[in-house]
């Protein structure tokens, strides 16, 4: 059975262990092969380094030989010129001997020059091969190190693999829930924009033609009155757009900070749900923290309050923010119907999202819930400087 086929089947801890064993064997085999390639390349590299030294020595000898022959060739040519210019003084045998020597030296000089050229080609080729082999050895050593890291990971503690699988399934379901929530949010925004600002602006666009006709037929005073109506429509559309923008990201977070934004949001929640009372309290020295942290804390409070409003059927929600020296504590408590945290619950994915966000901030989330008492969520997040985020 191939790994690809096994990967298509539902996962369980025992079968996953079998897959990991096969992976470990394959990785160990690959590590051995990479190591052997590295050793072979290293041996060949060392051999070529020795060979290069011999070639360099030969090149040096050939260059010395060439210099000697070139000097002898100059002397031979000088002697030949002297003999040739004093033809009547030297015998024919002397002239022939001078010519043959000059020619012999020139031939040998050409041979030595060709040897030098061939040796330099070998030297350059050997140097290129050494460079490539050195790079191969370095890559092999690096790969062996990386494979060792993979092996250490694969052969580590697998006792909690079942829990990891269950956690992975939950995270997958959570991811799908996020996608579903995002699509629902997009649909909601699309409907709000279409039914609100888009409709108003369409009416204003049509109204501009009416104002123009009124201006032509009834004069500027009548058109000015008509224009007031559409001005109110534009003002209404602008207010609706601002509300939608605030829902996406409250601008007061950047301008005023966390506490004023929370106060405004919780006041709105209290007015939206009939029979619901929301109490807010801030303890400690209020101060600004990093933008990322303020956004995260606002979203955590928003998610916790929305869960209480939608699922708890609470009549009272208490929210407290405490500024400590090195952390910020957020408490969200309601007097709703509560639930058993161990059992599946409709707000499970909301709480999971909060937990994920808190873990990203290196904080802690404590959940307490009782069907007779209600639910409390305590979040403690360390204050981290902006550059550490």
Outline of this structure?
With 389 residues, the chain is α+β, with helices and mostly antiparallel strands. It contains nine helices and five strands, in the order αααααααβαββαββ.
Fold and architecture overview:
Its EC number is 2.7.13.3, 3.1.3.-. Residues 188-385 form the Histidine kinase domain. One of its GO terms (molecular function) is kinase activity. It is found in: Cytoplasm. Member of the two-component regulatory system DegS/DegU, which plays an important role in the transition growth phase. The protein is an alpha+beta fold. Helix content is 72%, strand content 10%. The chain is built from nine helices and five strands, in the order αααααααβαββαββ. It has helices at residues 3-7, 13-85, 92-154, 161-218, 220-248, 252-255, 258-272, 291-312, 348-360; strands spanning 277-283, 316-323, 327-334, 364-370, 374-382. Strands 1-2-3-5-4 form a five-stranded mixed β-sheet, with helices on one face. Helix 2 (13-85) packs antiparallel against helix 3 (92-154) and helix 4 (161-218) packs antiparallel against helix 5 (220-248).
Order of helices and strands: HHHHHHHEHEEHEE
State the low-pLDDT regions, or none.
1-10
Helix content: over 70%
Q: Report how far the terminal alpha carbons are from each other.
A: 45 Å
Radius of gyration computed on alpha carbons = 43 Å
Instruction: Determine the number of helices (DSSP H or I, runs of at least 4 residues).
Output: 9
Number of strands: 5
Q: Could you report the average pLDDT, rounded to the nearest whole number?
A: 77
- The assigned structural class equals alpha+beta
Strand order of the largest sheet: 1-2-3-5-4
Dominant shape: elongated
Largest sheet: 5 strands, mixed
Strand content is 5-15%
């Amino acid at each position: 059975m191939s790994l690809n086929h096994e990967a298509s089947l539902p996962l369980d801890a025992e079968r996953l262990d079998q897959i990991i064993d096969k992976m470990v064997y394959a990785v160990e085999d690959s590590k051995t092969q990479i190591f052997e390639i590295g050793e072979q390349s290293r041996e060949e590299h060392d051999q070529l380094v020795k060979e290069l030294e011999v070639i360099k020595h030969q090149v040096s000898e050939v260059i010395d030989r060439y210099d000697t022959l070139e000097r002898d060739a100059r002397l031979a040519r000088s002697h030949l010129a002297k003999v040739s210019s004093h033809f009547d003084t030297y015998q024919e045998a002397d002239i022939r001997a001078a010519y043959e020597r000059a020619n012999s030296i020139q031939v040998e000089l050409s041979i030595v020059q060709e040897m030098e050229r061939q040796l330099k080609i070998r030297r350059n080729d050997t140097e290129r091969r050494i460079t490539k082999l050195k790079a191969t050895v370095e890559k092999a050593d690096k790969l062996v190190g990386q494979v060792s890291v993979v092996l250490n990971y694969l052969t580590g503690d697998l006792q909690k693999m079942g829990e990891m699988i269950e956690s992975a399934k939950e995270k997958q379901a959570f991811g799908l829930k996020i996608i579903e929530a995002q699509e629902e949010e997009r649909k909601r925004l699309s409907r709000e924009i279409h039914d609100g600002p888009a409709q108003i602006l369409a009416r204003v666009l049509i109204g501009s033609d009416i104002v123009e006709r009124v201006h032509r037929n009834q004069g500027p005073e009548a058109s000015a009155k008509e224009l007031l109506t559409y001005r109110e429509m534009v003002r209404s559309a602008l207010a609706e757009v601002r509300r939608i923008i605030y829902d996406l990201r409250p601008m007061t977070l950047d301008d005023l900070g966390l506490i004023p934004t929370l106060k405004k949001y919780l006041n709105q929640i209290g007015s939206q749900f009939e029979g619901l009372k929301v109490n807010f309290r801030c303890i400690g020295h209020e101060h600004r923290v990093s933008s990322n942290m303020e956004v995260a804390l606002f979203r955590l409070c928003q998610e916790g309050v929305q869960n209480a409003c939608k699922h708890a059927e609470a009549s009272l929600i208490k929210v407290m923010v405490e500024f400590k020296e090195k952390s910020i504590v957020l408490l969200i408590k309601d007097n709703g119907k509560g639930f058993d945290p161990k059992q599946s619950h409709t707000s499970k994915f909301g709480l999971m999202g909060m937990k994920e966000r808190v873990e990203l901030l290196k904080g802690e989330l404590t959940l307490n819930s009782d069907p007779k008492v209600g639910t409390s969520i305590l979040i403690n997040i360390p204050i981290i400087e902006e550059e550490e985020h």
